[in-house]
Amino acid sequence: MDRPISTTGKVPVFARNSSGLVRAASATDASFVNMYVATFPIMLGFMLGLVLAFYPGVNIFLTLTIGFILAIPLVLAYAMASTIMKRSGGDYIFISRTIHPAIGFAANFVFVVFNTVFLTSTGYYFCIWGLSPLARFLGVQLNNPDLVSLSNSLVQPFAIFVVGELFVIGFAALFILGSIRAVLKVFRYTMVVSLIGLAATVIVLLLSSPSGVQTAFDAYVKVATGVTGASKAVLDSAASNGYTDAPFDFGMTLLAVSWPAFSLPFYLGSAYFAGEVRSARLSQLLAGPVTAIIAFVAAIILAFLALNAIGQGFLASLVAASPSATGLGGAPTYMEVAAIASGNPIIGSLIIIGFASWLFPTVPMSLLIMTRCIFAWSMDRVVPDNLSKVTERSNSPVNAVILVTVVSVVVAWAWAYTSIFTVVVGAFGQIIALGIGSLGAALIPYKFKSLYDLSPVGWYWGKIPVLGVVGVLGAIGAFLMVANFARDPSSGVSISGSPGMFWFSLALFPAGVIIYFVSRAIRRTQGFDIDLAYAEIPPD
Length: 540
Hints:
Elements: H1 27-38, H2 40-54, H3 60-84, H4 91-98, H5 101-141, H6 145-153, H7 157-177, H8 180-206, H9 210-225, H10 230-240, H11 250-255, H12 283-310, H13 312-320, H14 334-342, H15 345-357, H16 362-379, H17 398-417, H18 425-447, H19 449-454, E1 460-461, E2 464-465, H20 466-487, H21 499-525
Antiparallel strand pairs: 1-2
Helix pairs in contact: 1-8, 1-12, 2-12, 2-13, 3-12, 3-18, 3-20, 4-5, 4-18, 5-6, 5-7, 5-15, 5-16, 5-17, 5-18, 5-21, 7-17, 8-15, 9-14, 10-13, 14-15, 18-20, 18-21
């Protein structure tokens, strides 16, 4: 490859003359990726379990609505910013060009670090919410004790670790040996399975009632574990553990926003590979805010159906009860309860498989986002140049994929063998980064006015640029969500409940700044002034 040439001086500014990435993704592909970034059915798994059980007096519909109101300006700001600056790397590009390179790197660095939490959580949740329930369900339906026994084995740490790493290594191989188009097909094919599973769930919930669900649950548990009268045992155990059907409590409803906050603000994953989305005028708006609205409405409907068919008290009691009440070893999700209510091995399997399919693409999604951020750092020479190497065969930054895969081993082990993570832990640091990104987006109309004015989203209210207002609102929403994490003792990252994780998350930001300035100093000894890169938009 030719040595890159600077347009501003004698020394090469960027690691490459062109990115080497291809525009393989359509607006539909970007929308599917965003849908799997946020995975609203999985988010509802927590809302209809943990939130109902441990936030007494919560109104989950109001919680979801508050979370959506806080998140939508942020999603819109990223969609607009990535429409204006269509480069892979997401907020790293526009923060580093509008606020400061060190801030841009630090925020994006934190986002990538915590994406490893989501990347490797797939093995954990795929086992406990997918493989294990499916084996148990089929074991009961087919009267096969070996499958029931297998379900218990699938929630052991070794199985969780192996499944998680198989996912990461398998999809890493697809990135390296296949092509970006092959990766994007994963989202398209999986969406079919996900929608079939959702349709089956909706049909069963529409035809079910709380009394019928509890009767089916009793029969199911009796076969699975030998426990009789399981539904009453669950309700009694939950009551003895302190669960009660409390009256509406706005404070608890607000506190519970931690849980939709790990989902609703993230319908913006396509901003991180914007350089690979075909440039229809409003692709990012369709992929981001429009997808977020659809998912929010779907979440409200699905929650309503589940509460009506299963009952709030029973759903909450399944989580609040001691595991010995059923002998299942863990609380079934609303999806597994719906499968049980179906009483049909085919329909029930479709429900559980459909639910698990929302987890499956989170691995290629995380790999796609993380490697594109690392690629962007390398293009600006903040990290080694070879991390932006793109192969002609796969059109992917191969070395970045390998780096992420190696790091994932440690985090996957932590998911399997420790309890230091909750699914919302990573969202705390990431939403801080997104808040900084929203501020960076708000500055684009002022620092890159001609670029903004010529873009498809160069809108004004009078003389005030729309992106400026939306970006500020997004930053405010991010701040409020972060503050809620910090005060929520169940978030896994609160000041009082988890001070170690709280301060570790915050410490990553100055660590990112230090890494940037150390890299800057090293590059100067090599004859590269990386400050020059930030005066330009990276090559396409």
